[in-house]
Amino acid sequence: MLLTISTDHRPAADLGYLLHKHPDKFQSFDLSFGTAHVFYPEVGDHRCAACLLLDVDAVGLVRGRNPDQDFLLAQYVNDRPYVASSFLSVAIAQVFGSALQGRCTTRPELVGTPIPLVARLDVLPVRGGEAFLRAVFEPLGYEVEAVRHPLDERFPEWGEGPYFSVTVRHTVPLSTLLSHLYVLVPVFDARKHYFVGEDEVGKLLAKGEGWLASHPAKDEIVRRYLGNRPSLYRMALGRLVDEGDPLGDESPVQERAEESLEKPISLNDQRLGSVLAAVRASGARRVLDLGCGEGKLVREFLKDRQFDEIVGLDVSVRSLEAAARRLKLERLPDAQANRVKLIHGSLMYRDKRLEGFDAAAVVEVVEHLDPPRLAAFERVLFECARPRTIVLTTPNREYNVTWETLPAGKFRHPDHRFEWSRPEFQTWATGLAARFGYAVRFLPVGPEHPEYGPPTQMAIFDRNA
């Protein structure tokens, strides 16, 4: 497999300093799976190109290992030596390690300097085709060129294969380009060449720092990078949320930002009071707070003796730790502490721990979900968990114009993926109720404007008998 990185930055030879590999030398490096070669096919004042060529020892990789019982020759007859894959990520980390980490003692001023870079991969197996390829690279600012190769040029009737020659262009620091390639190349391939364990989560988050949490395709990137292992995926997603992409409830910084906007009318207190009243009126004794954040609603539930069992769930470990501190669980008498449980989880996946409850509160959660993920959320809550009563709140977009400090067209805080008008929310909720066997009614939360309605809208779903 071959990776070529080139630049027309002047002086172009700066690329050699950044890569820590002299342009006049052909260098080879022994790796656990073969040999990596570094050479410069082009060096000049106006352009410089460096190549990383991997010679994978496919036979050596399987020598002494247990054979695949399904297909004994699969260990030897495969595309491992020829396509960009996790082997390339390992080679980047070991051969270009200093450049990947952003170190250059000779020319330290170059490390953070964006320079025009072109990376070409020959060849890259892409599950999902060119559309997925673009969905991954283009949000990061890359121009993408992809040439798809036929399965066999001698037999065009066989059609196109999954292999592409891919060229990406961007003006970024070299360490940024290498970090992107380190994470993303294995995402396009079907498998990693080594066991995927918890240490891979750390590698992913370290190399994805600063860009992965906000990437629109982060779910698929994380899932594929971690070999479709659900437990690792949930762990990584939770830590990504901690870094700046809250899923269930506001992070402390975001929560303060929204509360600052709503402070003149104490909207947060009114919202919690309305939800508490609705859940209490349902007669529930076992309750869920989904997206519990720092535990404000859980604390209100705990004060009310009606509730025998209270479970707060959030995807953010940091928020759960803050909730435990807020509730002072370690200081509560056993009888009180035993009523409360805080659990880590995601509303994107069926979770048997959420089944069998009388009521669930979902307070200011749905607007944090990317619209394509709403369907998964709907099934997890309404079809799988299926509590008797669901109380759900979300902002009313129409009301935003009443806040002078909120610029026109902006959401209430940056992590909101959308905000619904009253008709949009009611259409969504009514459709949900009909589909999953619930009756729904709507109540305003906060002072109602004669034209724009309330700042928060609440739906109460009651399961049909």
Automatic annotation (TrEMBL):
Pfam families recorded for this chain?
Hen1_L, Methyltransf_12
* Keyword RNA-binding part of the UniProt annotation: yes
Its cofactor is: Mg(2+)
Q: Which InterPro entries match?
A: 3'-RNA_MeTfrase_Hen1_bac, Hen1, Hen1_N, Hen1_N_sf, Methyltransf_12, SAM-dependent_MTases_sf
Any idea which GO molecular function terms this record carries?
metal ion binding; RNA binding; small RNA 2'-O-methyltransferase activity
Enzyme Commission (EC) number = 2.1.1.386
Which EC class is this protein assigned? transferase
Q: What reaction(s) does this enzyme catalyze?
A: small RNA 3'-end nucleotide + S-adenosyl-L-methionine = small RNA 3'-end 2'-O-methylnucleotide + S-adenosyl-L-homocysteine + H(+)
Q: Which residues form the Methyltransferase type domain?
A: 288-387
Alphabetically ordered keywords of this record: Magnesium, Metal-binding, Methyltransferase, RNA-binding, RNA-mediated gene silencing, S-adenosyl-L-methionine, Transferase
**Span of domain Hen1 N-terminal:** 1-240
Gene Ontology terms describing biological process:
regulatory ncRNA-mediated gene silencing; RNA methylation
Keyword Acyltransferase (UniProt): no
NCBIfam families, alphabetically? bacter_Hen1 (TIGR04074)
User: What PANTHER family does the annotation carry?
Assistant: HEN1, SMALL RNA 2'-O-METHYLTRANSFERASE
- Protein family: Belongs to the methyltransferase superfamily. HEN1 family.
The name under which this protein is listed is Small RNA 2'-O-methyltransferase
Organism from which the protein derives: Limnoglobus roseus
